[in-house]
Write a structure and sequence with these properties.
Layout (H helix, E strand, L loop, with lengths): L1 H5 L5 H8 L7 H13 L3 E6 L2 E6 L3 H16 L4 H8 L6 H5 L1 H8 L1
Length: 108
């Protein structure tokens, strides 16, 4: 998903090349994962000249927010304060904590 969020529309081959340094996966493996993400509604695709071009169907911030909420709900009984205490950021300014844009670069 990171490769698709960074550059879209994008083909399976382009994703394979983009992630190769971190995860040297076969073309068919990347194609299967992208197809499954498409079926689950995370990706949209368009057929152009015998190749599918993929685009994100969900925004990075939506996926990030859902993941963080899941961690807080499952491990901290839904308490944002307990989560921040765990991270050691209980003295961080509220504006920095609530700014999704401030976390985007770190998480991507």
């Amino acid at each position: 998903m990171k490769a698709v969020w960074r550059r879209h529309p994008i083909t399976v081959k382009d994703v394979q090349v983009a992630i190769h340094h971190a995860r040297p996966l076969a073309y068919t493996t990347v194609m299967t994962v992208m197809y499954r993400l498409y079926l689950k509604g995370f990706l949209q695709r368009t057929l152009k000249a015998k190749a599918y071009y993929y685009e994100p169907a969900v925004e990075f911030s939506d996926v990030r927010d859902a993941a963080v909420s899941g961690v807080i709900d499952h491990f901290f009984r839904g308490s944002r304060d307990e989560f921040l205490e765990f991270l050691g950021n209980d003295h961080a300014p509220e504006a920095e904590i609530r700014s999704p844009a401030a976390l985007d670069e770190t998480l991507l």
